[in-house]
Amino acid sequence: MEGDRRTSPPTQSLLPDGHLVLWTLCSVLLPVFITFWCSLQRSRRQLHRRDIFRKSKHGWRDTDLFSHPTYCCVCAQHILQGAFCDCCGLRVDEGCLKRADKRFPCKEIMLKNDSRAADAMPHHWIRGNVPLCSYCVVCKQQCGSQPKLCDYRCIWCQKTVHDECMKSSLKNEKCDFGEFKNLIIPPGYLTSINQMRKTKKTDYEALASKFGKQWTPLIILANSRSGTNMGEGLLGEFRILLNPVQVFDVTKTPPIKALQLCTLLPYRSVRVLVCGGDGTVGWVLDAVDEMKIKGQEKYIPQVAVLPLGTGNDLSNTLGWGTGYAGEIPVAQVLRNVMEADGIKLDRWKVQVTNKGYYNLRKPKEFTMNNYFSIGPDALMALNFHAHREKAPSLFSSRILNKAVYLFYGTKDCLVQECKDLNKKIELELDGERVELPNLEGIIVLNIGYWGGGCRLWEGMGDETYPLARHDDGLLEVVGVYGSFHCAQIQVKLANPFRIGQAHTVRLILKCSMMPMQVDGEPWAQGPCTVTITHKTHALMLYFSGEQSDDDISSASDQEDLKDTE
């Protein structure tokens, strides 16, 4: 009995331990189960939204947080998250998404009623969420100032009006497409084009004459992957201000297909705005050259640039700045395009022929808009691209990209991988051989800017040299003594070694592998012959309102040079 009594306390002590284990398991498994159930419900809601987005005529986009006070267009409640249409600007809560899709029509690319004239179209009003600092067209007072769903906005002309100022006559009034009427392709025009194509008529000029000579329709070609994915947001903002049919994402629709819209518009009237880096601009200009090959020269557009890349030397040369980060509204960008002037840009053919008696490969051909180089700057670009291909997500910031370039430039200052370049190459300008000093790099320029905003040919500006031009059929050839010399040139502490100007440049690499680049696209090249000749001209748009200090000083130097002559 005494032994049984002695063994019973340990048996009873196990019971509290069992309860502790049970409660511990519940406290661990219950949050896991709740988290799993919530994620399952969230995925179901996402699938439901995607199904609505896929079937809808609206351009719905999800957002976790609206950037300014927003009200649902269906239930009129204040919302922090939900969906918005990047074509008409409609904003709704997640629960009202299906009802909004049925109740509110989106922007019409083409008119359903064929009896309406090409230039006659009533306003398309949407209630609520009007832009900040907008004013009523009737009483001229500020709209959208009350903390509720109020006031109206026309999704075509962007005019706003108070609830109490809205009249029946205003609802049926003809829309004039507002400030950007000379850039918008009206839905009625496309409807008339569709009818003419059915009857096999192609007299588009007579149809376009209704809009006047000032009508210069604009096509937007944006790279959604450029500028830390800023291009995707710009696509929506342009769709709101223009006809969605004018706005293309080049990652989904290649430029050659998008530019076929030019064939439905008046001759030599179309303007194209390229939103991306210099690589995207080159891609679009190559598509324009394909239009020339197809015999569509009379439809060739003029090209403007909204810089979203890292270097943006071409856009800087054309007056569009070194980079766009949303510092000016998209509406101002459209105003700049309307004010821009047409100019020509030289385009050059770069032919690389490998050496060797048994080389049966065709020569590699590139089209150059900006510059060709061999040496330290090409080596930095080659190292940068090699690491960006391995981890592209790490190279999404302009500042980070330039920091990586600085790192590789500093490394090359110590290693000097491109030294004794003058012993490895021969250079000919217009057929005449040039003796070279002890250089590490040679750069052939077509435009004024190089290396992210440096005027390389002018250097420090302390010597009277003719300005580098992009439309004179001449190339500027300079040499650099190394990466440290490149850095000195960029901060205006040194001048490049100016070799000369020429219409044709020939470079012979006699031995070893050397880094080369054309417009920022680098590769490692063995013994070869590089020949640069003029290819064609591109029609560009120059904006004189965006001039840097270098532009102003260079222009004044040019005026002083003319005075001395």
Task: Give a structural overview.
This protein has helices at residues 2-55, 97-103, 168-171, 187-198, 204-208, 230-241, 255-258, 278-293, 313-317, 330-339, 376-390, 398-415, 483-490, 549-564, and strands spanning 60-63, 70-71, 78-79, 82-85, 91-92, 125-127, 152-154, 160-161, 218-222, 247-249, 271-276, 302-307, 341-354, 364-368, 371-374, 425-429, 432-434, 441-445, 449-450, 454-455, 475-480, 497-502, 505-509, 514-518, 521-525, 528-542. The protein is of the alpha+beta class and 565 residues long. A hairpin with a 5-residue loop joins strand 4 (82-85) and strand 5 (91-92). The termini are far apart. 38% of the residues are buried.
Secondary structure layout:
Blueprint: H1 2-55, E1 60-63, E2 70-71, E3 78-79, E4 82-85, E5 91-92, H2 97-103, E6 125-127, E7 152-154, E8 160-161, H3 168-171, H4 187-198, H5 204-208, E9 218-222, H6 230-241, E10 247-249, H7 255-258, E11 271-276, H8 278-293, E12 302-307, H9 313-317, H10 330-339, E13 341-354, E14 364-368, E15 371-374, H11 376-390, H12 398-415, E16 425-429, E17 432-434, E18 441-445, E19 449-450, E20 454-455, E21 475-480, H13 483-490, E22 497-502, E23 505-509, E24 514-518, E25 521-525, E26 528-542, H14 549-564
Parallel strand pairs: 9-10, 9-11, 11-12
Antiparallel strand pairs: 1-4, 2-3, 4-5, 6-7, 7-8, 13-14, 13-26, 15-18, 15-24, 16-17, 16-23, 18-21, 19-20, 21-22, 23-26, 24-25
Helix pairs in contact: 11-12
EC number: 2.7.1.107
Transmembrane segments: 20-40
GO biological process, one term: glycerophospholipid biosynthetic process
